[in-house]
Amino acid sequence: MLAQARWPEPGDGPPPPLPGFLHSPFAPLVAAVAGRCLDRRPGGPAAAGTRCAVVLVSAAGDRPSATHVRSTVAAGGRVGPLFFFQSVPNSVAGQVAARWGLTGPVVCLSPTGDPRADAVAEGELLLYDGDADEALLVLIDEAPDATPTGAVAVLLGGGDSQ
């Protein structure tokens, strides 16, 4: 493990807004914890040419946005165009990759067992297969109603095993 971060940590409020994403805490939470973890990478940013995968793990995805879209459509309302973009979890994973210049694969998982074990297994597979040199794992904690409440991010490097 090269680095790890949580959101929230002591002193944190809600994550900062994320341009292009609205209504839901899901995308800002992913971006905030990913950025915090990448900032903690020993030695600073990865060397040029390092391929870093992004693995986003969430049991429900962006449920607040999905609920908003469903209720707006059911009421005969018009859904704003940003909801089509942000309704797919890989849109925020792609935003993280673009923001940080990460050039590895982007993978989104809905865990079938232990979320951390599923994330580590996917990250290790990407490293082992040579698809990436590092893997940024982002796991979203959710309340029983699937509202995002927190997140953890872990940066794995080649040869790591958790």
Q: Could you describe the 3D structure shown?
A:
By secondary structure, the chain is α/β, with parallel strands linked by helices. It has a single domain (3-10, 22-157), classed as Thiolase/Chalcone synthase (Peroxisomal Thiolase, Chain A, domain 1), CATH 3.40.47.10. The chain contains five helices and five strands, in the order βαβαααβαββ. It has helices at 26-39, 63-74, 81-86, 89-100, 115-128; strands spanning 3-7, 52-57, 106-109, 134-142, 148-157. A five-stranded mixed beta sheet has the order 1-5-4-2-3, with helices on both faces. A hairpin with a 5-residue loop joins strand 4 (134-142) and strand 5. The longest helix is centred in the N-terminal third of the chain and has 14 residues, at 26-39. The radius of gyration is 16 Å and the shape is globular.
State the main characteristics:
single chain, 162 residues, alpha/beta, Peroxisomal Thiolase, Chain A, domain 1, 5-stranded mixed β-sheet, 5 helices, 5 strands, globular, Beta-ketoacyl synthase-like N-terminal domain-containing protein
Q: Low-confidence spans: pLDDT under 50, at least 5 residues?
A: none
CATH architecture: 3-Layer(aba) Sandwich
CATH superfamily membership: Thiolase/Chalcone synthase
What's the number of extended β-strand segments? 5
Report the C-alpha radius of gyration, rounded.
16 Å
Number of domains: 1
SSE layout and pairing:
Blueprint: E1 3-7, H1 26-39, E2 52-57, H2 63-74, H3 81-86, H4 89-100, E3 106-109, H5 115-128, E4 134-142, E5 148-157
Parallel strand pairs: 2-3, 2-4
Antiparallel strand pairs: 1-5, 4-5
